[in-house]
Amino acid sequence: MLLPSMFTESLFDDFFTSPHYKRSYSSNVHEMMKTDIKDQGNVYEMTMSLPGVRKEDVKAELKDGYLTIQATSNSENNESADDGKYIRRERYMGTCSRSFYVGDEVKQEDIKAKFEDGTLHLTIPKKEEVVVDNKNYITIEG
């Protein structure tokens, strides 16, 4: 049963679920950069899925307490007939990023990163926030 577009993510969802339509790449933002974060006591272990992305196209930056991961993907799909005429040519280029607040106390050299098989593994230490008691009392005379 086809539902009105107000019950789906976009107006074209019903059109693109046709069995005759096949995507050659994933354009759904919910399928990109899926992230699992596990609390291991003194560190956080973050695992981010980056299918089809190469290690050299992944950047991680720590700025103002925010860890930002950016991934760029390029793909080409060329199919041609035997006589060299184009039957289909497709290109896709995209960039996506996610940011996580890790705290101002975490330093760049404290974060360990490893990329293998389309998965980025990060180890982020837990830093205890220093709570400073800045109560300024007013002296009461009398």
Q: How does this structure look, described?
A:
With 142 residues, the protein is mainly beta. The chain is built from 1 helix and 7 strands, in the order H-E-E-E-E-E-E-E. The strands form 2 sheets. It has a 4-stranded antiparallel beta sheet, with no helix packed on it. A 3-stranded antiparallel beta sheet has the order 3-4-5, with no helix packed on it. The longest helix has 4 residues, at 13-16. The radius of gyration is 24 Å and the shape is elongated.
**So what's the oligomer here?**
single chain
Lateral strand order in the biggest sheet: 1-2-7-6
Distance between the termini: 80 Å
- Count of DSSP helices? 1
* Low-confidence sequence ranges: 1-30
pLDDT averaged over residues: 77
Portion in helices: under 10%
Structural class of the secondary structure composition? mainly beta
SSE string: HEEEEEEE
> Which strand-content bin applies to the residues?
35-45%
Largest sheet: 4 strands, antiparallel
Taking Cα atoms only, what radius of gyration do you get, to the nearest Å? 24 Å
List how many beta strands DSSP finds. Answer: 7
Shape: elongated
